[in-house]
Design brief:
Length: 334
């Protein structure tokens, strides 16, 4: 059987082909699955997608009409898939429920230290042989307060690094993570966390209840010299409200690996085009902001685990097994 994989990056392709080769043939495409590309999947029973795919009603209808029965998404998040429509159409949907939490946690800290110590600005200057230190002053992290919203596996890994820096630990989540509590984390309301944290990092999934978790009110509650990091999902932050606060001269630094309107932009080369997203265009102009293109997960270790789990999801589907990775089970046969 040949499987069709959308949105495969150049670095991923050899890993995908090697992992699938003992079991099935795989056709890797660098285009993302959306309404325009969905007809390519006609005749493929199994389709693999990336996090920036758009699996709305129309795309799912096209896939189902073309004979697709399994959608194997290569990510933990699944907010890009209309699960109710998939279930109604009898499609099985599986994801990667977990992979290396260290990849994202370490990258979140990379962003935090980069904006704190003005690394991008310093690097750009030295390329022009400008070795002045003006405007490059950062702050020691030791002794300062970090607020972690979401203390699951990634949040815990992030917290362990913060503990290593010698920071005061504040957390917010629906449940207390005993491992974080043992490190000395105090669980508080999100309002208290926003008000007290010198550095806020987001590690919660994007759900209806968490959309714009960091809204205008939360941003106003934060310290003027706070650092805000988002390596989870762009929709957690009201980006237009963030731009307003940045224009007012607030925040020591903002590091964003995700953006709420990133679909159709991230993972693509837009350098020769006019980007019509005015909010993003304004965001990247601020000297205290670093934006990266959803690469926090992108380590050899994490990507390998994602692909291995995707292969297992396909094998489980073919064998009629169901695992914790299945979001929508196959429709029962009559």
């Amino acid at each position: 059987m040949e499987i069709l994989a959308f949105g495969v990056q150049a670095d991923e392709r050899p890993l995908m082909e090697k992992a699938f080769s003992p079991h099935h043939e795989i056709r890797c495409l660098n285009v993302f699955l959306n309404e325009d590309t969905a007809p390519i999947a006609a005749g493929y029973e199994i389709v693999s997608t990336s996090v920036n795919a758009s699996l709305d009603n129309r795309v799912l209808q096209t896939l189902a009409a073309g004979g697709t029965q399994l959608i194997a998404q290569r990510s933990t998040g699944f907010n890009n898939i209309d699960l109710r429509v998939a279930e109604r159409l009898g499609l099985t949907v599986a994801r990667v429920s977990s992979y290396s939490p260290y990849s994202v946690a370490e990258f979140a800290w990379t962003l935090a230290t980069a904006v704190n110590r003005r690394i991008v600005r310093a690097s750009n200057r030295t390329r022009d042989f400008d070795f002045r230190l003006d405007g490059l002053m950062g702050r020691d992290l030791r002794g300062r307060t970090v607020g972690v919203l979401g203390t699951g596996k990634i949040g815990e890994a992030f917290t362990r690094i913060a503990h290593g820096f010698g920071m005061r630990l504040l957390g917010w989540d629906v449940d207390v993570n005993p491992a974080c509590a043992e490190l000395g984390m105090a669980y508080v309301s999100k309002e208290e966390l926003f008000a007290e944290a010198d550095l806020v990092s987001l590690h919660v999934p994007l759900l209806p209840a968490t959309r714009h978790l960091v809204d205008a009110s939360a941003l106003r509650a934060m310290k003027d010299d706070a650092i805000l990091i988002n390596s989870s999902r762009g929709g957690l932050i009201d980006t237009e409200a963030l731009v307003r606060e940045l224009r007012a001269g607030r925040f020591a630094g903002v590091g964003l690996d995700v953006y709420e309107a990133e679909a159709g932009l991230f993972f693509l080369d837009k350098s020769l085009e006019v980007v019509e997203d005015d909010t993003l265009a304004r965001l990247v102009t601020f000297p205290n902001v670093v934006v990266t293109s959803h690469q926090a997960y992108y380590t050899h270790d994490a990507v390998s685990q994602i692909i291995e789990t995707t292969v297992q999801n396909v094998l489980d589907y073919r064998a009629g097994r169901r695992s914790e990775n299945v979001l929508v089970p196959a429709a029962p046969t009559s």
